[in-house]
Amino acid sequence: MTSREIQDLIDDATFDYTMGDNDAALEKIGRALAVDPQCFAAWHAKAEVHFGLRDFDAAREAAEKALEIRPDDIHIHTSLSRIYMEKGDKATAEKHGAQARMLGWKDELQSGD
């Protein structure tokens, strides 16, 4: 499976999730991860689906995998902040929220905006 095919699978999973078919979304994400266990987009999508299902432990595990792959991604820090807030860990939520803001400012400075 090519990287384009993996991304198409993740896009299809995202569509399934938005249409309320969580099982199909997780199945497609699982297939993507079976082919490429280092696929950031798949881990992030898995975290978001589990967050939507209010399975915050599974969401955290998937988000932490994504963070290992791409530690400087603003979106995964935002997701982790939301997850930890729902889990009642305000300190860790704030840490990830601050990291997301810092990365956002860094991007702004680098782009000259």
Task: Give an account of the 3D structure.
The chain is mostly helical. The protein has a single domain (3-111), classed as Tetratricopeptide repeat domain (Serine Threonine Protein Phosphatase 5, Tetratricopeptide repeat, Alpha Horseshoe), CATH 1.25.40. Helices cover 81% and strands 0% of the residues. The chain has helices at 3-18, 22-35, 40-52, 56-69, 74-86, 90-111. The radius of gyration is 15 Å and the shape is globular. It starts with a helix and ends with a helix.
Integer average pLDDT: 94
Structural class: mainly alpha
Q: Could you give a short account of the major beta sheet?
A: none
Beta-strand fraction estimate: under 5%
Low-pLDDT residue spans: none
CATH topology, what is it called?
Answer: Serine Threonine Protein Phosphatase 5, Tetratricopeptide repeat
Tell me the radius of gyration. 15 Å
What is the string of SSEs from the N terminus onward? HHHHHH
CATH class equals Mainly Alpha
